[in-house]
Each structure stands twice: as C-alpha cells, then as structure tokens.
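Report of the visiting student (M.T.), summer placement. My assignment was to run the structure pipeline on a short list of targets and document each run. The first record concerns Molybdenum cofactor sulfurase.
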Amino acid sequence: MEDKEEFLKEFGDYYGYPNGPKTIDEIRATEFKRLEDTVYLDHAGATLYSELQMESIFKDLTTSVYGNPHSQSDSSSATSNIVREARQQVLDYCNASPKDYKCIFTSGATAALKLIGENFPWSCQSTFMYTMENHNSVLGIREYALNQGAAAFAVDIKEAVDQDGASINSVTSVKLSQYPVQRRNEAEVLEGELTGDAYNLFAFPSECNFSGLRFSLDLVNNVKQNTEKILEGSPYSKGRWMVIIDAAKGFATKPPNLSLYPADFVVISFYKLFGYPTGLGALIIKNDAAKLLKKTYFSGGTVSASIADIDFVRRRESVEENFEDGSISFLSIASICHGFKIFNNLTPAAMHRHTMSIVMFLKKKLLALRHENGASVCTLYGNHTLKVSSSDSGSIVSFNVKRPDGSWFGYREVEKLASLSGIQLRTGCFCNPGACAKYLGLSHSDLLSNLEAGHVCWDDKDVINGKPTGAVRVSFGYMSTYEDAKKFIDFIRSSFVSMPSEFEKGYLLRANSVPYPTEGFENRLSSSGCYLKSITIYPIKSCAGFSVKSWPLSTTGLQYDREWLLKSLTGEILTQKKVPEMSLINTFINLNQKMLSVESPRCEGKLQIKLDSDSYLCGKEEFYLHSQRKEYKTIKYGLIFIYEQQYGNMHKCETLFKKRYEVQCYENEINQWFSNAVGQPCTLVRCCHSQYYLSLNKNRSMGMCRDVDSRMNFANEAQFLLISEESVSDLNDRLCSNTQKLSGGAPLYVKPMRFRPNLVISGGEPYAEDGWRNLKIGNTYFTSFSNTLQFLFNLYPPNCMM
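After the run finished, the structure tokens were exported:
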C-alpha cells in the first residue's frame, strides 16, 4: 500500500479519471471482471472491449433489424442511417468537417493504406517519403511507387528543442535527414529533370508502435508547405506533397485535429481503439485528395450503372460509395457507436493522462533496477521523458533485459516466463523493421546475416551474434491500472535481477562416468540438501529414453545420448511436436552386448541394432544445422559447456554457428521399421562426426572455430540437461492456481520428465540451480553456466515436448 500511496502522491491528479463518471477501480470491477487474474499489457496489439460495451452491442443487434444498405427497404434504411451516424462520429473524433473530409470504411488500417498506394497518381517524377519508424503496412506502399518509376526514401525527423528539452514547433525547427534514394527505373528520369508537376506522398505514424514515440503533427503543414526548406534543397522536394498519418496506434488517446493539421489521409483500425469490432478500419480522406485517386476496379455498390456485354460503366459520385467495394461490414459499423460512447464519456484527454501516469511510473521503476554488481537491468528505447504532460511519448514501453555482465536475456524468454506468471505482453519487432533496426543498432549486414541464419518474424531467434533481434513491449489502455504495472515490475525484479548466490565456486568435469552421489557430495551440498534423483539417456532424438544408475561419459556428454535421429524423405528432422507417435518408441542400450533395442506398439517384434556393426549401414551423408550460441572450451579437460558469459579459464568463441553433421545412413529394412512406427516414410541416421562452422566472421567469409574440439550429438543446446523436482513443483503450484482461477477445471500437473532432462535433482529450494556455477555429482565435476531450468522452460514450455 505504501508503494501505491507514493504513486498516487505523484500521479493522483492524472491517474484513474478523478473527474470522470467512474473511477478506474469501478471500471475494472464492473466492465473488465475477466481481468481479475490476468495482467494484459498488449493494448498496442489489440486493446480490450468492455463487458458493458458488448452488452450494449448485443442488445442493439438483438432488438434492431439491419438489412443490406444497398436497397430501399426499411431495414436497409435503418442500416444506412446507422452507417451515416458512424461516419460522422469518426470525423467528429478528429475534428474533421464533412465539408472537407469523408470517412471510407475498410477492412482495417492495412486495407486503407493499400487503397491509397494502389490508386495514388504515381509517375516517374513522384516521390514516396516515409519516416524510418513506420509499420510494414506503410512500407508496402513503396512497392506501388517503385513499380511506377517513382523514387522512394526514408527520413529521420530532427527537431530543435528548447532548454527544457521540449520541441520547438515551428517550420524552421524541423529538418529531415534523408536516407539513400531507392528507384527501380532510374533511367526514366534524371534528378535534374524533376519538375513541380508531380504528386508526392509523405507517410508518418502519429505514434510509433515500437517505441511509443509521438511525432509532432506540425509535420503535416511543414511537409505540405515547406518541403524544400526542411529537405534542405533536395531535388526531390519539388512537386505537390500529400501526407498520410498512420493513426492506428495513436488515434485513441491523441486523435489528430484535422482542422489544425489537414492531412490528406488518416488511417485507423477500430479494434485498436476499443477492442471490438475486429476486421474494420477507416480511411479519413480529404475531398481534394479523393479526386486524385485513380480507381480501376468497380464492384457492387460502387457503380450507378454498368452494361455486361459492352465497355460501359458509370461510377457513383460520392467518395464513400466509389471506394467501398461490395457490401460494407454494416453490423460491425453499427458496433463502433457503442465504443465511441465510452470514449466520449471518459474523453481522450483523460485517457491520455491516465495511461501516461502508468507509463511514467513503469519507466522510472525499470530504469532504476540494478543487478547486485550495480549494472542496469533494462535498456529502454524511445523517448525517456518522465512527465505526464509530455506530448512526445505514448502508452508504450519498449525495452530489453540485460544480465549482470551486459549480455542480453532473450525477449522470448521474457515473454514465456511472463506468460507463466499470468502476464500477457508482446515481443519482437512488431512489424516495424525501421524502428527496430534504428533502436537496436542493427546494420544492413546484421539484418541480412540474421535472415541467412533463418531468423524471420515471430520466431524464437531472439539474440544473434550477441545482439537482440527485437524487444519486449508493454502497452497500456484506458482500463489499465497501477496494479498491472506493479505486478509487471515485480515479475522483472524476481525473474531477471541478479541477487547474490551461495554457489559460486566448484570444480570442472574430470571423471569418466556419472555415478549416483556419494557421501562426499552430500556433505559438500549439505546446505542445500540436493541429491541426484535420476539419470536418463535418450538414444534417438525425441523418442522415449531409459533410466540408469550410472552411465559412461564421452566427449559428447552421456555416451550415446541423442546419437540417432529420424528424418523425413525431404530432409526435415522429425520431433514429437510434429510426430507425436515418436513418444511411443521405447529405447534401451545394453552396454555389455553393445546393442540398441527399439520397440513400438505399432510394430511387430523388437528391433535390435548392433552398435559396433557396419552390416546395417548403406553409406554416409552430410547435412547442416544453424544455431546461435556462445561456445566455451575448458582448457584443462577439453569439454564444451554453453552459456552467454565468460568465466575463469575459458576461451570464448562467440558467433553464429553452422553445425555440420556427418551421419551414417541405415538400410531399407530398418528405415521401414521406423516408418511403420511413426506412420510416415522416414530414415534413421547416426551421428558419426560433427563440426562447428562460423556462418560469418569479420571479413564475411566462412571459417571454423578452432577452439572447439569437443562436440555434441543431436541435442538442441547443451550436452546435459538438468532440472530440479522442486522447481517443477513450484511450476505445478502456479499452473494449478491459474487453472482453478481461470476455469475452475481440474488442475494441470507436469512431471519433471516432461522436459526430457538427462539429470533430475531433488532437495533444496525451487530454482536454486539457477545460481550454480559448478557442480559435483559423486566424484564427477561439472561446470554449468546456464540458468538451466529457465533455459528449459524457454525451449520447451509445458504444453509441448522436444
């Protein structure tokens, strides 16, 4: 309570709608009861509809009859009236006179942008200019421009500031820093031949969906009236400039006042405003701009008359009817009136003050977090102004998390752990590649090498070559609370802030086998009470393993562990995520007989493969796997351990790895047995040699990391995977609590073997192993540099398996 009192002391005049019809606590209690056990922090992706809003919509749709507006019936007239009312509400919200503007309904902001791009009067003398901070849906307009011979380039906005750090909003204060010009048909026009007759287009977001930076709407007038001055005499400044505002993110709390900033086009999406409906957006278009768009296609609703067997069509004259192809989504349009009712009651200004008070609080707390060595925990992106009254910051906080040594936690790790804690957020680049590269310091070379490494949008490759490929983003809506931000801060502090650990010293691995623990080991870790519970070997990747009391070690880890795998005929590696039948394949290795035994309920008889016989083999082949990791070689004992820091007597080889495998292939009889077992054609291969190659070194050539003389088989990330029963038990307690609160159903229960570990330990506190550096099991010494349990959760969440 003291924390909240301190918060209210600083932000009480802004937080919670003190002068509104309801306080924030009343809003959450009556309109968002479903958020009782959920912290929702992705309002920039999609905000939430209120229960009162949906009740009003349901009542409207169940008591009214709305027909297709392309008719003259009473139900059609009712629809036309509600659509007309909705158009006016959209225009009123941004203070746009219907004499100057029209509202065209689309399937979303993306569809509105596409409509502009494909109908704009491009020529070889046109220019498409856009800020680096733009969504992919805006960048897509570039394709239309370049295909028509126009030039395109990105710009950075440079504004003069006063002594207090506030922007000076005047024509002379704004300068545009131009990136290289792109042109596909450069021979058609020379720079010296550019004239003032062309139509040009400038696009910028009202709020960057990556960083939350708000752009000054003075850009509208500056670009339309003074392009030559702000582009400092560039030949591309000539011609008539038109302006797009992408208001998909910023429209809710800071709608553009179009009477002061007369942009030609403004695009919005309604689900980003009030959560429902989805699949509906709008293009607010200036009447003069609408006359310039060259629409080719016509459809039902857009023509006054057409003749089927001759080239004749007469289009409708109204702007809306000309551009709204087919029947509009009239039931969704009827729904937005109820969303605007909520907004008009709260007011945009009050919603802005409320969300900004939470944003400023969160930024201050994240910037203040420190590890035990004094290193900062979070790196924030965008504007760091900590004033609620600031006009250049929105409801987004974007950041990444660092370890004490300065290396990065992966953003996917943050997202998955947040999800386990009931916190919903978003990670990645958020379809904003320019802002992502700009704030993360990613060069063109970085972006291309990341792509070559297999990194694409929405994947799990969150750190490559020591650099984040994206960020963590939390964003707030009008119904967000102080408690949401406080729970998120507590989550970051408990999950990622380094505290002193009692396990700081130990010894390196130097034994030849892993026995059960001896008395000496138990004495050594008497303070934690830990002991080794089980050892499990998985000979065939993703198939069932078997437990043993002791097992020999090799340079690959546990001998024979993940030494075989199954491949499809197209070369794809089979895993349980793709082929669940693999979990039914049981394996066992008899060391005395040197025999691998395999059984499946889908196959008759047991398959037995001699480990030291070549009679089953039919040749060798090579294939490559790409991965990102930092490898370490222990000098004394020649074993590789994987982590993201440098400790002690280690040589570090940090880069993007291309792992080459030389494998032995098996004869058709064995392949057929496995094909029957998994229900699809496949082949069995055995790792006989692996080697790590750098995919890119300083001179952009292929090379090998010479310090790595040990190897792994087909394990994903490390030679040994360790997990503790207490950590899994803590996870089960959280899963059980969340399940009962959310659905009241039977509690979930996850067993340690769900994570397919090699070593299961018991005793001690949950997650104590996260702080271990070295470990002794019996007379065998291990060095571990990963937060093992977190690492496993990151790779294999409870609802999926390797």
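The longest strand covers residues 617-634. The chain has four domains: 1-64+347-499, 100-160+174-185+197-325, 533-611+649-695+707-715, 722-796. I thank the supervising group for their guidance throughout the placement.
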